[in-house]
């Protein structure tokens, strides 16, 4: 894939690539200068949750022993409490 640099030195990543990688406005990429050329990669400090196709998707690593079902139950109970007043 060939990209063109504009007058300001910017590159535009094609939307299918941004969508596949979960890159959004304000996202950060690292530029590495290697002996074979430059390499762009997602920054390590990218958020673990990204929105893809209108849904939140977790991309990170869960801490050992983290109980996802319990976390969902707690969030559910908290929302019910807010609605019920």
Q: Your description of this structure?
A:
The chain has 85 residues and is α+β, with helices and mostly antiparallel strands. It has one domain. It is 28% helix and 24% strand. The chain is built from 2 helices and 4 strands. The chain has helices at 15-21, 68-84; strands spanning 29-34, 37-42, 49-52, 55-58. The protein has a two-stranded antiparallel sheet with strand order 1-2. It has a two-stranded antiparallel ribbon with strand order 3-4.
Tags for this model:
alpha+beta, two-stranded antiparallel sheet, 4 strands, 24% strand
Cα Rg: 19 Å
Order of helices and strands: HEEEEH
* Annotation, overall tally of beta strands: 4
Major sheet? 2 strands, antiparallel
Looking at the structure, what is the overall shape? elongated
What is the helix content?
A: 25-40%
Distance between the termini: 55 Å
The SS-based structural class is: alpha+beta
Q: In the residues, how many domains can be counted?
A: 1
Return the average pLDDT rounded to an integer: 86
Number of helices: 2
Largest sheet: spatial strand order: 1-2
> Residue ranges: pLDDT <50 for 5 or more in a row?
none
Strand content: 15-25%
Secondary-structure map:
Blueprint: H1 15-21, E1 29-34, E2 37-42, E3 49-52, E4 55-58, H2 68-84
Give a nutshell description of this structure.
By secondary structure, the protein is α+β, with helices and mostly antiparallel strands. It is built from 2 helices and 4 strands, in the order αββββα.
């Amino acid at each position: 894939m060939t990209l063109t640099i504009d007058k300001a030195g910017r590159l535009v990543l094609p939307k299918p690539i941004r969508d596949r990688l979960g890159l959004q406005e304000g996202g950060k990429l690292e530029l590495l200068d290697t002996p074979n050329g430059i390499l762009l990669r997602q920054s390590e400090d990218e958020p673990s949750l990204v929105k893809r196709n209108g849904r939140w998707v977790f991309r990170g690593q869960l801490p050992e022993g983290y109980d996802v079902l319990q976390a969902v139950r707690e969030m559910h109970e908290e929302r019910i409490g807010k609605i019920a007043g």
